[in-house]
Task: inverse folding
């Protein structure tokens, strides 16, 4: 646990759950750095923290505040979140000044608890200041009080906005002002005053501060027009949507923390269905924890999702967003109507069509749509309105529209949304799988660069003849010795030329253009037409006919565009292979035929060529066993199967099993694993098996400082530590590594020991 | 924790113990208590037959060392038999060879133990 995590002041998430945002926090905290590695843009820095709603901007500011506060250095962080209730100039000035003063006093006292006195009278806040600051703080409060009596709101705002600079100059500190929800100043007097403060910041040799303004990204140009001089000095910190990998980490950690049982497939579904949105994800997990339900099955997840969207945390949040955009009930109806229209359309809708639809409920439809655009409820572009890409918003809108506007009768039991989501969940998972394969293929085609690869990888019949019954590792070895080769072209462009589906089969087509022969002439230009087919059965001739039609059209289009002279190469990749008739027909066309397995093998082969023989592991397996009696036997059996597939002899297999058992016992005996599980990964490479055994909690083995008794030491009853001795003796390489949350032992066994014949 | 079931049998005045497929702490402790019972009932020749034993872990080995000590302390004799190559390698690595004799089969172990016990009995002074 880091120090910052030890004292959480404003941040709402522990560091463990603050995933994928360290870079942004680092950028914010570095804005006021001095010395080597500091920003080189002078001392006056204004940064905009921009991102979609719910992407985590506020937490980045809060976490940055905590880091700098805990550091107690020369930079004093001041956090202020604008609120609709405090946009009145006088209210804002009082609130801003009070918040700043409380945070300043808390920082000087190194007492985060004092931040909460901001709601007290200003004189009370000032009283908390250390003796050396008190006279000055008192005088600031008096000045503010006089200014507020002058009934000049602009002057009062200026005083409040300049107070942090004056205070920090007095204390010899550099202020970093973290302003949250800055988009709320749009259209108000505050906007003018903020711009003035930012423009005057550091001017004429005055003291300067760094500002980080967090804002909705679509309001940015409205808030700081590109023509403003300030615009040129802006630093942009963009906060992107969390990656699937990081979101998965977040889900696992939070589920573990909340004690919510969850399965891998539910995590995948959740990631897809919630569009990698960390806010929605937390809402679902918190909902599961508070309802005491698990998330191990699709129906458990979809039930909870439906409940959360209709009447839980997510529903409450979206209700609030809609109310914020349209506080009046009639305008609220207009919002729902507009959203429902563009979501149901499934494509862009002319803006006039939307304003006409909502005209009955609002007098200024365009202004309302503009506000919705700012909040990313929809997107306005060149006179058209598009639906938001947020799938949760779509579900919420459809459900609310159905029940509140269309007046659909409520089912006697259950919810329509639940049924819809369950039907959708399977295809969602499949589409994800298809997309992954498609990305793999496109990436692979982009790597085609005149390599010579084994011909059997493009000829399913030859492959079956040569390698049927062999394990993948055996095939990989045999491919090196295959004589017949296919010389790949160098692919320059890959176009997606369409997709199709029918029950049990879906396909996507690509046109890849490039050169063969190494000379970039028209004569050497080639076109590869690639069909990627996901079918439950071997591809039949009828389906092949349907796939060929668009493929031929794509060929004609490419030829017309590029004047291609050569015959196009056809490459069909079918997950389950091809029927006899389809094979015969494609053979007549001299088409290449592969399966998904071949795709993997081609990828491995190209990687191996690129790395000069070093390839990624041919196969990787993962196993998680509980820490309980004799569970290590399951690990040993698994290792046996894997080692056998990798051609290890029986003696080596036994050594691997014994070493693995010792590793598991070591974890059991020496760790304090909170999840009571042992995680194992088996990676087979061309010449070795690498087994990684890891746990969470207290490190085990060497990582725990445990000594290994010498081989010569006399054995005695009860003596422990022989485990490591055994592991080291039986495996070729053994390494202990500490991890963030535990330790891992990496053991390698070579097919032949290095140096041996 | 209850002790694991292991097989054992008496052949005349010798005992043979079969640890089963996996010698771990549970089965080691069962062997230990079975041996104590045999020794208490006067059996002094004990063979541990590893024919069915595919895997042995370090805790099982530690307990086995305790068993060897107990048998020696009770003036008995113990032999290990039918070890596969991997288990033999493990015992060699951990230095068990200097503490206990290993033979190929249960029969040879019983024969050898019988001969050893006779020699010991012959060396004992006869009471007058």
Result:
């Amino acid at each position: 646990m880091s120090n910052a995590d030890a004292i959480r002041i404003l941040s709402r998430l522990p560091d463990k759950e603050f995933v994928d945002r360290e870079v942004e926090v680092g950028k914010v905290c570095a804005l006021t750095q001095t010395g080597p590695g500091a920003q080189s843009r002078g001392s006056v820095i204004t940064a905009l923290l921009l991102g979609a709603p719910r992407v985590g901007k506020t937490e980045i500011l809060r976490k940055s505040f905590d880091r700098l506060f805990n550091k107690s250095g020369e930079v004093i962080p001041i956090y202020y979140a604008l609120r609709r209730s405090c946009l009145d100039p006088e209210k804002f000035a009082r609130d801003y000044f009070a918040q700043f003063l409380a945070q300043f006093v808390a920082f000087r006292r190194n007492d985060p608890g004092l931040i909460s006195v901001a709601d007290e009278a200003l004189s009370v806040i000032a009283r908390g200041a250390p003796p050396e600051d008190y006279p000055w703080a008192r005088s600031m409060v008096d000045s503010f009080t006089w200014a507020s009596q002058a009934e000049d709101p602009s002057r009062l705002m200026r005083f409040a906005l300049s107070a942090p600079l004056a205070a920090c100059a007095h204390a010899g500190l550099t202020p970093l002002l973290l302003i949250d929800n800055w988009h709320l100043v749009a259209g108000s007097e505050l906007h003018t005053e903020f711009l003035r403060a930012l423009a005057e910041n550091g001017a004429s040799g005055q003291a300067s501060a760094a500002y980080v303004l967090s804002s909705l990204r679509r309001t940015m140009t409205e808030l700081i027009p590109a023509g403003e001089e300030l615009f040129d000095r802006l630093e942009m910190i963009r906060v992107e949507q969390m990656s699937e990998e990081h979101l998965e980490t977040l889900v696992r950690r939070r589920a573990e923390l909340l004690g919510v049982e969850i399965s891998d497939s539910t995590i995948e579904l959740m990631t897809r269905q919630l569009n990698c949105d960390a806010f929605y994800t937390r809402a679902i997990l918190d909902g599961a924890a508070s309802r005491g339900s698990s998330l191990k099955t699709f129906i458990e997840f979809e039930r909870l999702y439906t409940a959360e969207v209709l009447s839980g945390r997510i529903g409450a949040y979206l209700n609030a967003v809609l109310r914020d955009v349209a506080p009046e009930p009639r305008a609220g109806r207009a919002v729902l109507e507009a959203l429902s229209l563009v979501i149901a359309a499934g494509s862009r809708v002319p803006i006039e069509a939307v304003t006409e639809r909502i005209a009955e409920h609002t007098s200024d439809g365009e202004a309302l749509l503009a506000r919705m655009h700012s909040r990313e409820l929809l997107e306005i572009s060149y006179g058209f309105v598009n639906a938001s890409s947020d799938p949760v918003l779509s579900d919420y809108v459809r459900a609310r529209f159905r029940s509140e506007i269309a007046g659909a009768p409520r089912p006697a039991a259950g919810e329509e949304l639940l049924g819809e989501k369950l039907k959708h969940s399977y295809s969602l998972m499949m589409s994800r799988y298809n997309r992954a394969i498609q990305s793999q293929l496109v990436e692979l085609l982009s790597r085609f660069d005149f390599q010579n690869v084994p011909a059997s990888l493009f000829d399913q019949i030859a492959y079956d003849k040569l390698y049927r019954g062999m394990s993948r590792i055996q095939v990989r070895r045999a491919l090196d010795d295959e004589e017949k080769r296919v010389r790949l072209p160098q692919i320059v462009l890959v176009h997606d030329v369409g997709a199709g589906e029918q029950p049990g089969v879906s396909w996507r087509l690509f046109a890849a253009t490039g050169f063969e022969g190494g000379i970039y002439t028209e004569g050497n230009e080639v076109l590869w037409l690639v069909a990627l087919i996901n079918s439950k059965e071997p591809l039949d001739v009828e389906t092949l006919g349907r796939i060929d039609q668009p493929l031929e059209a794509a060929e004609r289009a490419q030829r017309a565009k590029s004047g291609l002279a050569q015959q196009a190469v056809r490459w069909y990749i079918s997950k389950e292979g091809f029927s006899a008739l389809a094979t015969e027909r494609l053979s007549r066309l001299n088409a290449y035929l592969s399966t998904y397995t071949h795709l993997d093998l081609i990828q491995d082969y190209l990687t191996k060529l690129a790395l000069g023989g070093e390839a990624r592991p041919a196969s990787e397996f993962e196993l998680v066993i509980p820490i309980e009696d004799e569970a290590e036997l399951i690990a040993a059996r698994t290792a046996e199967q894997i080692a056998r597939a990798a051609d290890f002899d029986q003696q080596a297999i036994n050594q691997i099993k014994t070493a693995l058992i010792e590793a598991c016992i070591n974890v059991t005996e020496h760790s304090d694993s909170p999840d009571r599980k042992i995680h194992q990964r088996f990676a087979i490479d061309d010449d070795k098996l690498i087994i990684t055994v890891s746990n969470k909690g207290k490190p085990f083995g060497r990582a725990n400082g445990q000594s290994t008794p010498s081989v010569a030491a006399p054995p005695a009853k009860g003596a422990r530590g022989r485990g490591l001795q055994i592991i080291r003796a039986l495996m070729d390489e053994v390494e202990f590594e500490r991890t963030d949350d535990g330790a891992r032992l990496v053991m390698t066994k070579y097919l032949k020991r290095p140096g041996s014949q | 924790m209850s002790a694991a079931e292991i097989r054992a049998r008496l052949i005349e005045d010798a005992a043979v113990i079969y640890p089963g497929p996996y010698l771990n702490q549970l089965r080691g402790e069962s062997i230990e208590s079975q041996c104590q019972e045999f020794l208490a009932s006067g059996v002094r020749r004990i063979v541990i037959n590893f024919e069915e034993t595919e895997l042995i872990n370090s805790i099982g080995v530690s307990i086995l060392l305790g068993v060897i000590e107990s048998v020696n302390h009770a003036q008995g004799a113990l032999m290990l038999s039918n070890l596969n190559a991997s288990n033999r390698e493990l015992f060699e690595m951990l230095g068990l060879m200097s503490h206990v004799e290993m033979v190929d089969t249960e029969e040879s172990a019983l024969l050898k133990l019988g001969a050893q016990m006779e020699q010991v009995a012959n060396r004992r002074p006869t009471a007058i």
